[in-house]
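Action item from last week, closing it out:
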Amino acid sequence: MNSAVVATPLKAQAFKSDYKPIWCPGCGDYSVLSSFTKAFANLELRPENVAVVSGIGCSSRIPAYTSCYGFHGVHGRSLAAAAGLKLARPDLTVVVASGDGDGYSIGGNHFLHACRRNVDLTYVVMDNHVYGMTKGQPSPTTEPDWDSKLSPGGTGLRTFNPLVIALAAGANFVARAFAGDPNGTADLIAEAIRTPGFSFVEILSPCITFRPEQREWKQLVRPSPVTYTADAAQAARRLMTDDGLNIGVLYKGDRPPYQPPVGKGKKRPSDLEVEFAL
């Protein structure tokens, strides 16, 4: 009897496409791309079993830079496409790449309901507190007093708190990473993928072109002083007093993921046409 063939684990490089990234020099998204491929390799996945979905923005270029299946959708709709894909193909590992503009502004409503539905996918948001692709426009996470040419004197608007929102809406895994630590970020992404249900990872990814002061994040970020909790109320109290610079897993729940049965349809298209006939 022939022994079963065991696939050789792939290196991170095997998950990279031949396309050269065109982000600005120094952009944190270069490191995040590296973390994606390292996470896939560490989990011993295969490119043909992974789908990377995105919307619009600097961060949303990531699917093209991987050798996995990819879907580059319209602005803010990546989670809707990813949820449909995962429900139809539960055998695939589905990861969504987004940014603070794409994910929290026009995509904010999808974010809420993706957390609530708890479909088994991983949502990675590269947050640089600015729209880099539109040349420095304030985003939902931009500080209210950040002065810029597009918003002189600042917006005066309260910032969006994505981790608090994710927790309140029902995400099963909530974590924060820093692009300047690609290995640590890869470990967090891998843990998020392993955790059943909707996993949310915020990555502080500096945009030194329009927010050069974010170079300081390297000195400011630090590991969270406490371990993660499975108590949503306790996690909420921690997050409401968090300064946005604590790195690590902050919450991990045990809600079962939403996955309706997948099988052959009970009706044919012709049956549906009869119902709508005039």
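Closing note: The domain at 22-275 is CATH 3.40.50.970 (Rossmann fold).
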